[in-house]
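Q: Convert this sequence to structure tokens.
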Amino acid sequence: MSEKFTGSFTQQEALPEAAIEAALQVLQHGRLHRYNVVEGELGETALLEQEFAAQVGAKYCLAVASGGYAMATALRALGVGPGDKVLTNAFTLAPVPGSIASVGAEPVFVGVSEDLTIDLEDLAAKADQARVLMLSHMRGHLCDMDRLMQICDSAGITVIEDCAHTMGAAWNGVASGRQGKIGCYSCQTYKHVNSGEGGLFVTDDEELAARAIMLSGSYMLYERHLAAPGPEVFERVKYETPNISGRMDNLRAAILRPQLRDLDAQVARWNARYQKIEAGLRDTPGLTVVERPEAETYVGSSIQFLLLDWSAEAVAEVIKRCAARGVELKWFGGAEPAGFTSRYDSWRYARAQSLPASDRILAGIVDMRVPLTFSLEDCAQIARIIRAEVMVVHQAG
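A:
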């Protein structure tokens, strides 16, 4: 009888004991609001910002309510508004174009390459269409960041990095989020640190940092930030920057601080699982493994493969057969959005755009979470199941 996987693709690990203890301390004193501190107390959120800035090598950091809020704040801080065009990936998830639409701007989609990163040739061709690029490191795949920055710097394009899937990753040793002007990270449950919801914003630009802090809802309490520019910078922006409240609270910050200290160890665990699945899928007829460049330090919290140039019916059959054996796969070629999965032609608030080369690739992208609750043996079993079902359908075709 065919083996069946019985684990969960959506169950997270329990929070570390240090995070639980820190959360209890906040609950016991009741000062959840980030600016509600007693004399001599720095506050969990301010400490989180200081520690994350040091961790990624940024001058300034702001903790906010979500990764999507961080991206919208980045756009507002840069002065992007109604009618402006913003370049972004065709292969991404809804919060990325959603952040652009939230400020009244228009997404201009840039194609995806077969290594699942932004198509740099298409980016160069569209570089004259916008002054900002919202670069999504979708599903943890980093493009050639050296070349991307050359293209954008030459065209005068400001880069915001969406690092929702790349916290802990790097390109040529530079932390993800630190090549562009602003880096935005997510702390949502399915990301690399878990506070349910939450986001982080980093930059070295003092005025952007001050504007972001005012936008997040600091009122005139910005002096309580530890990873912020000096008061003279706030004097320049505080009367002209609206309060669009989206602060992180001390409870979530307390939960996150111990997890960030453990991030490198967690990355190693994710990558061991990713590599086990990847090894099991290699040389499967009809299936393309996405190769990782040597310059990329990645975090294998999810894995993707391509069933390139397969019919929609054949890919759907693979998804169905794997699901029957307990393996939950997501597909970017479906006719309708499903769960968290959608694509550029799903977002009707954006102007319709034609990207036939990207459509071919999106039609073949199969995606799977790799939770740390999986053992290495689980990962080997999952790979066997996917391999077997792909081979059955491929041979039948």
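The chain has a mean pLDDT of 97.
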